Amino acid sequence: MSRVGNFTGKLYRGDISFNIVGRKKLWYSISAVILLLAIGGLVFRGLNLGIEFKGGAEFEVPSSSCTVAQVRGVASQAGADSIVVQELGDKRIRVQTEALKAEESTKLISGLSDTCKVPASEIKVQLVGPSWGSEITKKALLGLLVFMVAVVIFLSIYFEWRMAVAALVALIHDVVITIGIYALVGFEVTPATVIGVLTILGFSLYDTVVVFDKIKENTRGILGQSRMTYSEAANLALNQTLIRSINTSIVALLPVAGILFVGVGLLGAGTLKDLALALFIGLLAGTYSSLFVATPFLCQIKEREPAMQALTKRVQARRASAATPVGAGVGTTASGSRGGSSSGTGGQAGANVAAPPPKKERTHRTSGGRSQPKNAPRSKRGNS
Question: Cα-flanking dihedrals φ and ψ of residue 129, to 5°?
């Protein structure tokens, strides 16, 4: 078996254990710092809403004879302020601006036609109103609310309400971090971003449910024993699912990282960066919250129950009694008996040892019922 397999087996059996639940203050502190940064990004920088949410104009022009910098300069000369230029994969350039006046739009189309040496008829123009983005936002928020309510109901039925609350806290943790970091980076918020945020909710919940299911298995009938507390059983479940959660996250992150760093950074596929960034941040936050936020928070709630507090006292009392030296009283008694025997002489000490009882002579009962010695054989009677 490989070293990784041995390490995984020791984690599952509990031979090696990381005290994740016991260090909940550390994990809470890390989450607090990240959340403060995310909330600060939302408050002070805000989200860079795309044209779909704030309205504007969109122009697509063939890029065989012009560059992104040239197109940006033409748009600026036409009077546009909020300019977003992206190079698409089919040798086309997309220009997004705020809502332009008729003369500004005509000037921009004419400038793009002259710079890129294409007829004006080949330039695609699309006007987008803010109402469309507002409708998407309302539906996304409604979907998020329905999803969270369904999660709470399902987890309350399958597990218990405390696990549902812990999972909901982890979900909110992931959403706030994802949106906040998105604001800090300054990427444009598009419908693809909304899709990515809604997608990471399922992944975060998936990892959390796997851990909670193992906790449910380890804590079944836990009140009937005094060997471990609820937090210790939950920590064991975390260690047993740790490698699996890490492997799942790596497998999920690899293609997303490929889209984000290779596709966007090297190939210039700008249309994918919105979705890829949301997924990448969400997957990392979901893995972290399922291991270091949801389970410690669950244990913190469960340990407040009177039954769990009584269990903790029983476990501590058993461990305290097991730590007490058992041979202390026995050693005193034995030394006292040895001291009493040594006060006499050696003969007396030997006399105190009980001799084995003498063997009884075998007898047999006669017909009269009285026991008599067994007669010797006839061959030996004459000699006597």
Answer: -90, 155
Q: What is the DSSP string of 259-326?
A: IIIIIITTS--GGGHHHHHHHHHHHHHHHHHHHHTHHHHHHHHHTTSHHHHHHHHHHHHHHHHHHS-T
DSSP structural state of residue 119: -
SS3 state of residue 58: strand
Q: Which residues pair with 87 in a beta bridge?
A: 93
pLDDT tens column, 140-184: 888 888 988 998 999 999 999 999 999 999 999 999 999 999 889
Write the DSSP symbol of residue 186: T
Structure tokens at 128: 């987008």
First to last CA, the chain: 82
- Residue 95 has phi, psi (to 5 degrees) of -115, 125
Report strand pairing: 188-189 vs 48-49.
parallel
Pairwise pLDDT comparison (27 vs 143), residue with the higher score: 27
The residue extents of the domains of the chain are 21-49+132-317, 56-128
Q: How far is 358 from 267, CA to CA, in rounded Å?
A: 104
Q: How far apart are CA 181 and CA 346, in angstroms?
A: 89
pLDDT digits (tens, 9 = 90+) for 209-230: 999 999 999 999 888 888 899 9
Q: Which helix (H) or strand (E) holds 93?
A: strand 92-97
What pTM, to 2 d.p., does this model score? 0.72
pLDDT of amino acid 271? 61
Identify whether the C-beta of residue 177 lies closer than 8 Å to the C-beta of residue 39. no
Instruction: Provide φ and ψ at 358, rounded to 5°.
Output: -65, 150
CB atoms within 10 A of CB 315: 17
Q: Kindly list the distances between the CA atom of residue 257 and the CA atoms of 253, 254, 262, 314, in Å, as whole numbers in the listed order.
A: 6, 5, 8, 49
In words, the CATH class of domain 21-49+132-317 is mainly alpha
Q: How confident is the model at residue 77 (pLDDT cuts 50, 70, 90)?
A: confident
Rounded to the nearest angstrom, the gap between the alpha carbon of residue 229 and the centroid of all alpha carbons in its chain is 21
Most confident of 115-119, 191-195, 237-241: 237-241
Which pLDDT does position 376 carry in this prediction? 53
Q: Which CATH class is domain 56-128?
A: alpha beta
Contact 264, 276 (CB under 8 A): yes
